Backbone:
């Protein structure tokens, strides 16, 4: 199995490099993979099955729902509504969609899920201590 958390950390660093270089479409695209990997890591930690390939394996809305999370709001909602693997074939975002807003939303989602991952890991460690 891939280490989703490690991959998410690598892609997050790459997002920063792209964003600082004003390569916002690429940053948004990779931010989606950060969110995807964080979600898959959360699902794995919690024993929740998820698709590992094909279109559904990259469906942020589907992964988010599988995790049992409520619909995000603000920039995070905007990101989930607009991010898709099809961005890899685009030279620009759709008219009226701001890359900075999307990037902010993707970073918010990734951070929010990372917090849930840490909480899930803490619960697992504390359960393990109680069984010794």
Residues:
């Amino acid at each position: 199995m891939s280490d989703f958390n490690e991959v998410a950390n690598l892609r997050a660093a790459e997002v920063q490099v792209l964003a600082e270089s004003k390569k916002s479409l690429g940053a948004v695209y990779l931010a989606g993979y950060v969110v995807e990997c964080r979600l898959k890591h959360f699902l794995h930690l919690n024993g929740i099955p998820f698709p590992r390939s094909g279109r559904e394996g990259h469906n942020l809305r589907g992964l988010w729902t599988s995790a049992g999370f409520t619909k995000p709001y603000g920039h995070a909602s905007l990101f989930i509504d607009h991010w898709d693997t099809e961005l890899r074939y685009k030279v620009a975002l759709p008219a009226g969609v701001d890359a900075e807003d999307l990037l902010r939303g993707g970073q918010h989602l990734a951070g929010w899920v990372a917090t849930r991952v840490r909480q899930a890991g803490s619960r697992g460690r504390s359960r393990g201590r109680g069984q010794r």
Remarks:
- Residues 99-130 form the longest helix (32 residues).
- Residues 58 and 85 are 7 Å apart (CA to CA).
- The radius of gyration is 15 Å.
